[in-house]
Amino acid sequence: MCQREGAQLQKGMNFQMGGNHSVILMSVQANSPYQDRVEDDGETLIYEGHDLDKRYSKVPKLDDQPRAYPSGTLTENGKFEVSALNAKEGGDLERVRVYEKIKKGIWSYNGVFHLVDAWQEDDEYRKVFKFKLIAVEGDEDFTQPVKKDTPHRRIIPTPVKLEVWKRDGGKCVECGSADELHFDHILPYSKGGTSIKTENVQLLCARHNLAKSDKII
């Protein structure tokens, strides 16, 4: 994850890294500090914004999530909100790489999403930000303009990833590497393969995943 981005990702929300894409870290685990959720059979991510820094709040979970710092500078919530609402009005879409924590110390790359909407809603104690992102097929060439008509895709559900990780021993099924692993569709989703059955998902290292591409092995 950090190697791909060329940076130490200290925050869950990272707007405009390198000037051409953003990065968010998500989790749908029960003990996650934020309430992220996946909808539409894996096509849509509803991502919760982040709390006040502890420098500004003794109990961040009781305070509204901030749009801006006391200085007036936008927080990551505010930056993502401006971009999302601009896209909703027909402006440029923000490309976002999404990484998911599936268990302690293990992160899964969920691919590129387009940021399409943002709003605030009430939880039990305060107002929180929500961001809507759509999983898209490809659009990984950040030297090119965002393609607004990019086909949608579905991400692999977390329980499937956990089962595949256990079955494949946390290693590439081709070479046994435990570094830079990807959850790969054996039959690509674009060719009718499913994301919800472990039988169609395997672990591949980056090298073998790139070599396979969309070819059916």
Annotate the secondary structure layout.
Elements: H1 2-5, E1 13-17, E2 21-26, E3 37-39, E4 44-48, H2 76-88, E5 94-103, E6 106-122, E7 127-135, H3 158-167, E8 181-185, E9 201-205, H4 206-212
Parallel strand pairs: 2-5
Antiparallel strand pairs: 1-2, 3-4, 4-7, 5-6, 6-7, 8-9
Structural overview:
- The radius of gyration is 18 Å and the shape is globular.
- The protein has helices at residues 2-5, 76-88, 158-167, 206-212, and strands spanning 13-17, 21-26, 37-39, 44-48, 94-103, 106-122, 127-135, 181-185, 201-205.
- It has four helices and nine strands.
- β6 (106-122) and β7 (127-135) form a beta hairpin.
- The longest helix has 13 residues, at 76-88.
- It has a seven-stranded mixed beta sheet with strand order 1-2-5-6-7-4-3.
- The protein has two domains: 2-154, Roll (PUA domain-like); 156-217, no CATH class.
- The protein is an alpha+beta fold and 217 residues long.
Total domain count? 2
Helix content: 10-25%
Structural class: alpha+beta
The CATH topology of the largest domain, please? PUA domain-like
Q: What do the pLDDT scores average to? A: 90
SSE succession = HEEEEHEEEHEEH
CATH class of the largest domain: Mainly Beta
> Please, how many helices?
4
Rg, alpha carbons: 18 Å
Rounded to the nearest angstrom, the distance between the terminal CA atoms is: 26 Å
Biggest sheet overview: 7 strands, mixed
CATH architectural arrangement of the largest domain:
Roll
Fourth-level CATH superfamily of the largest domain: SRA-YDG
Q: In one word, what is the shape?
A: globular
Order of strands across the main sheet: 1-2-5-6-7-4-3
How many runs of DSSP E, i.e. beta strands? 9
- Uncertain stretches: none
Beta-strand percentage? Answer: 25-35%
